[in-house]
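BUG: 3D viewer hangs when loading the predicted structure for this chain

Environment: internal workstation, default settings.
Expected: structure renders.
Actual: progress bar stalls at 90%.

Input used:
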Amino acid sequence: MKQTLIVMLSLLSFFHFSPKAHAATVQHVAPTFWWAGMKNPELQILLHGECLAAAQVSIDSPDILLKEVVLQDNPNYLLLYLDLAEARPQTFHILLREGKKTTSIPYELKQRTRKGEEVQGFTAEDVLYLIMPDRFANGNPANDRVPGMLEDGVDRSGQYTRHGGDLQGIADHLDYLQDLGVTAIWLNPAQENDMPEGSYHGYAITDYYQIDRRLGTNEEFKQLTEQAQAKGLKMVMDMIFNHCGRENYLFKDRPSDDWFNFRSNYVQTSYKTASVQDIHASDYERRIATDGWFTEQMPDFNQRNRHVARYLIQSSIWWVEFAGINGIRQDTHPYADFDFMSQWCREVLDEYPHFNIVGETWLNSNVLVSFWQKDSRLAAPRNSHLPTVMDFPLNALMNVAFDEETGDWSDGLYRLYDYLTQDHVYADPMHLLIFLDNHDVSRFCKNEREAQNLARYKQALTFLLTTRGIPQIYYGTEILMAADKGNGDGTLRNDFPGGWKEDKTNCFEAAGRTALQNEAFDFTRRLLQWRKGNAVIGKGSLKHFSTASGTYVYERSYEGHSVVVIMNGSDREQTLDLTPYREVLPQPEATDFLSGKTFQLKDRLLLQPRQTLLLSF
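Structure tokens produced before the viewer hung:
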């Protein structure tokens, strides 16, 4: 026993005092660099490598204060908190000393190239075009296969495999988007997703400071943003704070177990986030909804850990400052800690006052969604500080309203009228993201039969682009791409025809589209170009009338100008008595923008089945 103890002590002495065992190596520095002159002078620098905890840390800059060095349970991490209040742009060194050995890590504080007030977010004057980068266009086949990444190569035959779309493919088609008339691009996540399978969608981030190399580089993302902005297209970046990918080094070699909920043990979420605002909910319901993991492959961050919170907040500000993006779409917003998300929104908007953030608030009623919007009376005294929320209830209604006969008290367009009468629950109805479809729900055309119904498409698109809120169009909607979620999420994210050199059909060009697709595209383009810069739609108030004779009438008005939309929500001709609408029909006749025809607006108006009029005054 005594001899065994001596051997054990000898081994301990070797591991604790051997110079080789103590050699500090740094594998990750996050953020990779920062800027002088930010409004918040505090900077967290996370160092990850081997044998870091034993080092004595110092900074070789006289105008930077090292406020705090935080050790984690894992000796492979050091967290440094710096005060940059007096710091000038410079490259300084982080010095890690262990006995006679010193490891020097250069760190750059860059000069800011723009003021925070100069960053302009997206508004209701914009129309967002949502792209899943892997499925839009392959502009650089050389990055289809990146040695060392877990999911290697391209297989376009699979729903859930990588297809090879990339940032260059998007850059190659910016003229297409500009000509279409959208004014902002929202990209599904472009940050690294080095997962063994299903990495195409991007929602399991493995490095928050690195663009996925199969899509491009950080510099290419910045260049894409600049190229898009030069063409009048804003850039919105998808971010995920609720969870990361299991292959993220923060989980694989985690700083401590309390960086992730349930002490890094997998516990499934219930997905029932209504419990967050449910006054009757049990503590268990609330905790399992927000702290439970989205999937076993997506560990759930514990944002109540102040180091986790600072890491995530800084990562988002880094991308705004580095690439100059115009907005963030935050995934699974209600699944994360409410107070943390509120703090994050405040800090981003304090740094960039004209920025915009939209949270994915996938809930089934306007009351539940409204809780998450900034200044919501329903959440008071708490405040999410989230400017924009996603209007999922309206999405659901739009996907049935244009298929039904409209009554005076139910069905069809009455559903839209009835829903909008309840907008008082929202703190700001103009800051609702509205959409016919996106990457998570069935396309507006669920099948080829619906894609053949162009009247349905035209009426729905007109409503989307003229009602209150910030419209979003999903890539391929303009060419009537069809998919049903029941057939798998991968089908909702099919390749845009013509994005690959081997494609037999190229829908980026009129010659490659069918006559029906061209009619849909031309209608979409004309309406989007009309909407662009139209302050009546982008800023105007909404006044509407209850449905009558199968018809829905509403007005958008701003500074003495107005647009009146008249929709026949019936498969029959309708004769509309114009007496109730005199207050929004100031002239005896008007020209319909959609058809170019002039209509008399005296006593009665004859509407053809499913006809829509767009009248300007």
